[in-house]
Write a structure and sequence with these properties.
The protein has helices spanning 20-30, 60-63, 79-91, 111-117, 139-145, 166-189, 199-206, 208-217, 251-260, 275-280, 282-293, 298-307, 318-327, 368-376; strands at 11-15, 34-39, 69-73, 94-97, 122-127, 193-198, 234-238, 243-247, 311-314, 333-334, 343-344. The chain is of the alpha/beta class. A 6-stranded parallel beta sheet has the order 3-2-1-4-5-6, with helices on both faces. It is elongated.
């Protein structure tokens, strides 16, 4: 296996904070890029203080989004630090930032200024609601404004946020797609460009079938708990001891499912013969299925249904999910050494390149002296190997 990674030689100036931007830049680091994280002196990224839980150096929130990076603390209102930031941008291939409009313009690092300084730069802006709106936006607020909460939760309950900052994650991955595409285009044209993503647009795109249904019918979808609006059974079903998530995607699968439950006649019942029929008579179907499932525990049904080719799983907590991934041979935990807690391994692997990074999340300004010295010298690659 080659020790080269896909983005070896790419330099990223990371001016982003919190989640979407740092997730994108951490993934760039996992892919081999050198990422220099610019932080505020004294405080750093807001997420350093978003705990508990804590590591020995910061919050686990920060640690989970910032491995593989080199931290330098720069005060952009200080002339010397501002000059260092400008020089970093002059050398960078990619810049990622999520400041409010006008903040970086004060030091000439708005998109126009930065691209004039470095025409090959891929300048990436992350915002809550787009640059024109100039509104502050955290994931939770966008989940509310963007409709995700309206379709999440029990049908007779309140709108509910997802259990993780899902919109930030979607936006971070959209930013990554834009950055990689712009780098590829730069290979052909020699020029960088301004890439923009925002949480609102990423969420609307991420609503996929829900927003497509609205656009086709004019009717906004409603909360359905764990049920799917267009497929049945595609929900959690109660067994003797708890819930089993079952996904039956077509009529052939439904026939195999009912046979595995020893209820083959259900597949011939006209109420359930086709998916549209099952959706129309979902309540009656679920009652019959749960009656059959009540004969065994969820962990006993799992292998029976898997043998029939039916997608199903018990509802795991996070710890059980990690152990389940380990049992499948997915090797989900990345070891960053004895002084650092493990992290979830990058989800993309390459046959000809190592996965992930060996560099743990940085302390605030941990690499500040080395970064400043490098920026004062000739424009050579950053000396990552020097501790």
């Amino acid at each position: 296996m080659s020790r080269m990674r896909p983005l070896d030689g790419v330099l990223v100036a990371d001016f982003s904070r919190v989640l979407a931007g740092p997730l994108a830049t951490m993934t760039l680091a996992d892919l081999g890029a050198t990422v220099v994280k610019v932080e505020r002196p004294g405080t750093g990224d807001d997420t350093r203080r978003w705990g508990p839980p804590w590591t020995d150096r910061s919050s686990t929130y920060f640690a989970g989004l910032n491995r593989g990076k080199h931290s330098v603390a720069l005060d952009l209102d200080d002339p010397a630090d501002r000059a260092a930031a400008v020089e970093l941008v002059r050398r960078a291939d990619v810049l990622v930032q999520n400041f409010r409009p006008g903040v970086l313009a004060r030091c000439g690092l708005d998109p126009d200024g930065a691209l004039e300084l470095n025409p090959r730069l891929v300048y990436t802006s992350v915002s809550g609601f787009g640059a024109r709106a100039d509104l502050p936006g955290y994931d939770f607020v966008v989940q509310a404004a963007g409709g995700l909460m309206s379709v999440t939760g029990a049908a007779d309950g309140e709108p509910t946020k997802a259990g993780v900052a899902l919109v930030d994650v979607l936006t971070g991955k959209d930013a990554l797609v834009g950055i990689l595409a712009a780098l590829r285009q730069r290979e052909r044209t020699g020029h960088g460009q301004h890439v923009e993503v925002n949480l609102m647009s990423s969420l609307l795109a991420g609503l996929v079938n829900q927003v497509s249904g609205y656009l086709a019918t004019g009717e906004a979808p409603a909360r359905m708990g764990n049920r799917h609006p267009s497929i049945a059974p595609y929900e959690t079903l109660r067994c003797a001891d708890g819930l089993l998530a079952v996904a039956v995607g077509n009529d052939a699968q439904f026939r195999r499912f009912t046979a595995a439950l020893d209820r083959p006649a259900l597949a011939d019942d006209p109420r359930f013969a086709a998916n549209a029929d099952r959706v129309a008579h979902r309540d009656a179907l679920v009652a019959l299925l749960e009656d059959a499932l009540s004969a065994r525990r969820a962990d006993a049904w799992e292998p029976v249904l898997h043998a029939a080719g039916i997608a199903c799983a018990r509802v795991n907590d996070v710890g059980a999910a990690v152990r389940y991934a380990e049992s499948l041979g997915l090797d989900p935990v990345l070891d960053l050494g004895p002084d650092h807690p493990g992290q979830i391994r990058p989800p993309v692997t390459f046959s000809a390149a190592p996965a992930g990074t060996a560099l743990p999340p940085p302390g605030l300004d941990e690499h500040g002296d080395r970064v400043r010295a490098w920026l004062r010298g000739p424009a050579v690659p950053f000396p990552e190997g020097e501790a």
